[in-house]
Structures are given as C-alpha cells and as structure tokens.
Amino acid sequence: MRQGRESFQFKKYLLIFAPLFTAFLIVFLFDLTHGSVQIPLKDIIAVLTGGSASKASWGSIILALRLPRAFTASLAGASLAVSGLLMQTLFRNPLAGPFVLGINSGASLGVALVILAAGTGIGGSLFSGGGIFAEIGLVAAASIGSALVLGIVLLAARRISSNTVILIMGIMFGYAVSAVVSVLIHFSFAERVQSFIAWSFGSFAVVSAKDLGVMFPVILLCLFLALPLCKQLNALVLGETYASSMGVSVLKVRMFLISVAAVLAGTVTAFCGPVAFIGIAVPHLARNILRSGDHRILIPGCILTGGIIALAADIASNLPGSDMVLPLNSVTSLIGAPIVIWVIMRYQHVGR
Amino acid sequence: MSSLKKHRISLIVQAILILISLFLSPEKPALALEGRLNLNIDHARGFTVEKSGDLTIVRLQDPYPGANSPVEYLLVPRGAGMPSRTDGATVIEVPLRTCVSTTTVNIAFLRELELSETLVGQGGKKYVYSPDEFEKALPETGEGMNLDLEKVLELDPDAIFAYAFSPTERDNLKRLEKLGVPVIFMSEHLEDTPLGRSEWIKYLSLFFGQEEKAAQIFSEISRNYEALAKKVSSIDHKPEVMANAALNGTWYVPAGDNWVAHLFRDAGASYPWSSTQGEGSLALDLEAVCERSVDSNVWVNTGSWEYLDDAIGEDERYAWFKPFKKGSVYNNTARCNDHGGNDYHQSGVLRADLVLADLVSIFHPSILPGHSLMYYRKLDWK
Questions:
Q1: Interior angle at CA B17, CA B14 and CA B18, nearest 5
Q2: CA pair distance B288, B115, nearest whole angstrom
Q3: Among A224-238, B181-195, B270-284, which range has the highest average pLDDT?
Q4: Contact status, residue A254 vs residue A313, Cβ threshold 8 Å
C-alpha cells in the first residue's frame, strides 16, 4: 500500500516537473546565446563543450560574463520565489513577499551609506576623512544592512506573538530606513545618486564567477533547509491554531522560516540589488500552474518557475537585437504583472 | 566656544578614522626605481610620474572619489617583456595601440595630441560634443553603470580609460581587468584647480609616449592662463558673482576649494563662499543664497536654462536677484549638443585659458575688449 503511494508520488512529480525543468533548461540556454555581441550558436556550443570559439574574446564573453549571469538569474529567481512563498504562507497574506520584513531596506541603507555618504556634506569631514565607507564593497554593505534588520526582526519575533504586528513592524522599518536614504540622497552628488538608483534597479550581470562561489552555497543551504519544513508549512496555511493543534511548534517554525526566507532574500539583494516582483508573483504563478497548495510541490515548483521567470526577465532586459539594456526591475514588473494577472484570472477557481 | 569644541571633536573623530583606515588599507610597498627622475607636474595633484631608463611609474593618488590607496601603473616599452618586479602595479605596454574611453574629456585630449585614431570604442557617445566622422563611426561601449563588458572584450583594446564613481563601476572594471583589459583610471575631475585639470593631458600622453607634445601644449595653456590671471589681479574692483541655480529647493554652490571657485578668483570676481572649505559643493537653501547674493553683479553657470524665461518658469523668485534684473546672467552652454553633451566639459577642461578668458571678459569687459565668448553665452528673454 505504502509502496504504491510512493510510486504514485514519484510519477506525479515526474509529470509535473519534467516539463518545467525542460522549460528551465531551454530558457537557460537561450539566455547564453543572448547579449550585446552577436556570437554564432556553433561557437557557443563549442565553448560550452570545452572547445574554443573562432574568436578568442568570445570564449571569455561566454564563460566569464554570460554563464555567471545566467546562473545568477536562476539562483536569484529561485531564492526570491521560495522566500516569497515562505512569507506568504507564514503571514497567510497573498501580498507578502521576500522584502516584507524590511530586508531590502536594510540592504539599501547599507548600500546608500557606501555610495552616497562617502565624501558628502553629511558630517562634513567625518565621512570624507577616512574614506572607509567608500572602500567597503556593496555586497558587504548590503549584507550587513540586511543582517541588522534580520536581527531586529528576530528579536521582535521572539516577544511578539502576533504575525500581523511583525508584518507592520517590518513595513514601518522600511519607511524609517527610506527616510534616512532620502536624507543621504539630498546631500549627495548627481553621479552618486544615479549610481545608487541604478543599484536599486537590480541586475544579474554584476555578479562574477567569484561572487557565485559565495552566493551559490548559501542559497543551496537555505533551499535545503526549507524543504523539510513542508509539513509544517502545509499546516500553517490552515492557521496557527490548527498548526499548533497538529503539534507544530509555531514559534520555533516562525523563527526558522523568517531566518531562511530573510537569508535567501538578503543574499540575492546583496549581490543583485533589490530585484522586485519575482518574490511576490512567482508563488502565485506556481500555485496556479501546478494547481496545488502542497508545499512539497510548491517549493520545487517555485525554484523552477522562479528561475525561468528571472532568466526570461534577463533576456528581455537585454532587449534582443539591440545594444540597449533596460532596468531589470522594470522588466520583471512590466512584463510579469500582466502574465500574473492573466494566469490568476484564468485559474482563479484554484487560487487561494 | 562651542563651535571650537565641535571643531576639536570633529578633528579627533577624523584622526581616529584616518588611523582605522591606515590599518584597513593593505600594505603596499611603493615601487622604487634606481636613479629615478621625477617628471615635472606643476598644477595637477592627482598623479606623479617617475622615470628610470625605459620604465615609467605613474602613481594615481585618488583613482576615484574616496579611494584610500593609490593605484600605480608601470609603463614598459612595448615588446620589452615584463619587468622583474611589479609590486602590485598594473603593467602597461606603451605606447598603447588601441584604447576604449568612457570619458568625453579624453576626446579633447586625444584630438589635441593627434591620437584620435587609437580609439576603437567610446562610451557615452551622445555626450561627445561635435563628433567628427571618425568618432561618429566608433562603436558605443556604454559608460559608468552601463559599461558593456561584452562589447569591450569584443573590441579587445590595449587598455580602457574610465571614471569609477561608484563601487559597482569599480567591480565592473575589476572584472574587465581580470579578463585581460587593463583599466586606466581618470580622475582629473578631482583636481581643485582649472590648470590642474588641464594638466591631465600629460597623464594621458604618458600611455602613448607623447609626453613632450603634451608638455608643449600644456605650457602654452598655462602661460596664457597665468598671464591673464596676473593682469586681472591688479584690478581692485571685484564684481560679486553668484553661481548655479536651485534644484528642488536646494541650491548647490561650489565650495571654496572647488575648481570653479578658483576660476572665479582668478577671473577677478568676489565670490561669497570663497572662504569655505571643501572641493565639492555646498548644499544651501534658497534663503541662504538670497541673503548673500541678491545684490550680486553677475550670475553664471545656471544649469539647464537656455533663456531667462526658463528660470521664471522654474521659480518666479529668481527675478528678485539683481543680475537677473540687469540681464547679466551667463551660462556655460554656448557649445552644446542636443543630448546633453557640452564642450565646456570636453575641450573646456583642457583649455582652462579660454574658459578663464570668457569669465574675465564677463567680469571685466575692459580687459579683453573685443573678446567673443567661446563657452559662455548671455541668457536673453525668448
């Protein structure tokens, strides 16, 4: 009996995820063929299979620029989607997303201090004197910023029993931080403000292979930590009271979920900037495409769908057939929003 | 008393910060060459040059705003092979045969040095004022945050000249360097004197083995500049100048050590914020500027205004200022293209003498009778 159920499960998994995985691979490969320099397909295949391209520079373009970019997009999409899913389930709120607790605000404050405050009028000589702020990398600054916010949220989460209060706290935190960022912008120079704004648009292209060496293990670890939580997550969907009656230690799970979701979102934000929309939209897309509320299906579903959407956004932001690059965030939102509305309208009877 | 105390505290804080930054900055022994010869750099403070035999060391004090360690370039003759010690310096084979540039200032420098043909790609082409046929045909590589790494790699230049305002730009350039394209930072915009900026033509020329030509060009410019400044310094009457315009209620004006403030002084104007410290801008509110400048004689560098009407369109209160009533408002936009490219920021950086002449003829028309403005224009009503 048990045996039968498991093989059914496996078949079901295969049926759902084989097409999704194929789609992911296709988009991934398409992303590699795509950039401001036209490289023939046969050279791309040659480079990927360990050969050499007919032009020396093409090898490094594909291996050092495009491959990291495509990996970054896949990882970022997957993490944001899972992070968003965890938050939506925890807060039982369809509008929740990875940044709802102010993780991105913390990151942007860190980055704003590095980009904007170095050498401005704030504190006059204080900032320009040492030049310390200017030398800290953006990744470090964003990580420190989001870790600080995470710490505060976790402290609060231990004392506050209501999820709604935590949610409101996160949002208030966001307002407070953006006020500080506004002050920094006010006193900064045009070039700095522009580069801060450019950071806030998000980008997958800035992550190098070396950065991936940090980003990849962290994200992989968090995703693996999220998987065993499926049962508790499924119980949480029905409410905290139900979950605790099922033997779920709500407080413990909450701390754990917040940590995993925040580290996922924080890592992506640290390396790619605050990539918008994917984290809120992909969980809805996954629920509707997979027609399931079961987290055992939703988490891997979100990983694949998130990767696909992020890769597609990366392709679209590089504007096929032109030199122009659009801000990543406007692409994710502009192209993503209608798709999500369409999917949700179409499957609204399944939508939760 | 309290301001003195504040000052002392800020000094202490600054000292601590500098100490910390000393600890943080990686130990980097400076290259030392036997029998070295310091090349004459008279005005620019951002770079130094030492020569010894075939080798040249160019040391860039501040490769970008807020940097806490210098960058060194070790210039070796093309084909001579790697030197035995580089000590962390970037080795560059000179003369460069090809380069990519993401600054428009280099267009002016390269033209003057007759090296334009070495350019194989230009970032921010739309900001190039009056590009010639050759420059128009150059591939666009993007600049700043939008630098297109793929494009640069494809063009495979001997080096790229670039600004690095933000950490993101620096990371991008670092990646490029790892992929085999040496990055040569430009920071002439950090100089606090007009001649200091102009002298950066020498910096550029080193990478092409054209030092002598650059020295000739610069000595003529500095001679002209200093002669004119000397002539002006004997005049007692100094008209009061006000600068820039408000942006969303904040009025940014050049601080006292800013190169624009230097220009005002050398052109014989009195500038209310001349004694403030700092090389950047002061963010003032409307009131502060109004109080000091409402009875000024001349108003210059008014941002995007093309006509006096534009000012009134932004804020009617601009009409309160005396220069506005008298119609002595001048903007540095005489030579502009439609995309925001301004020759004032291109050839004007090199030709500090011509910029000074413009300002002198605005402040003291009698000194340069018959001078026709080059970079500046008087604003009129539509």
A1: 85
A2: 47
A3: B181-195
A4: no
- Return the top range by mean pLDDT from A109-118, A168-177, B255-264: B255-264
The alpha carbon of residue B215 is apart from the nearest alpha carbon of chain A, in Å, by: 31
The answer to whether residue A338 is domain-embedded is no
B138, B147, B149, best to mutate vs chain A, most A CBs in 10 Å: B149
Report if residue A11 sits inside a domain.
yes
Across the interface, of A55, A132, A134, the residue whose CB is closest to B65 is A134
State the virtual CA torsion across B365, B368, B369, B370 in degrees, nearest 10. -110
Number of structural domains found in chain A: 1
Instruction: Give Cα separations from B282 to B252, B277, B374 (angstroms).
Output: 5, 9, 28
**Phi, psi of B262, deg, nearest 5:** -60, -45
B247 at A interface, C-beta within 8 A = no
φ and ψ of A277, to 5 deg: 75, -45
Q: How far is CA B223 from each of CA B147, B200, B226, B227, B353, rounded to the nearest angstrom? A: 38, 16, 5, 6, 8
Q: Which of A37, A119, A189 sits opposite B150 (nearest CB)?
A: A37
A126:B10 CB<8 A = yes
A169-206 burial, b if ≥16 CB within 10 A, otherwise e?
Answer: bbeebbeebbeebeebbbbbbebbbbbbebbbbbbbbb
First-to-final CA distance of chain A: 31
> How far apart are the CA of B153 and the nearest CA of chain A, in angstroms?
6
With pLDDT > 70 as the criterion, what percentage of chain B qualifies? 90
Does the beta-carbon distance from B154 to A61 stay under 8 Å? yes
Q: Would the pLDDT of A254 be above 70?
A: yes
Residue A254's CATH number: 1.10.3470.10
CB B72 within 8 A of CB B54: no
d(CA A104, CA B313): 38
Point out the residue among A36, A61, A126 whose CB comes nearest to the CB of B13: A126
Element containing residue B282 per DSSP (H, E): strand B281-285
Query: For the segment A16-57, what is each residue's pLDDT rounded down to a tens digit?
Result: 899 999 999 999 999 998 888 888 888 898 988 888 888 888
Q: Which residues contact B149 (CB under 8 A, 6 or more apart)?
A: A61, A65, A205, B172, B175, B176, B179
Whether the CB of B319 is below 8 Å from some CB of chain A: the reply is no
Closest approach of A42 to chain B, Cα-based (Å): 17
Residues B180 and A156: their CA atoms lie apart, in Å, by 49
Whether A15 shows a pLDDT value over 90: the answer reads: no
Examine residue A141 and state whether it is found in any structural domain, yes or no: yes
Over residues B303-317, the mean pLDDT reads 89
Contact A102, A174 (CB under 8 A): yes
* Contact check, Cβ <8 Å, B146/A132: no
Which domain covers residue A36, as residue numbers? 2-324
B250 at the A interface (CB within 8 A)? yes
Tell me, yes or no, whether A197 lies in a domain: yes
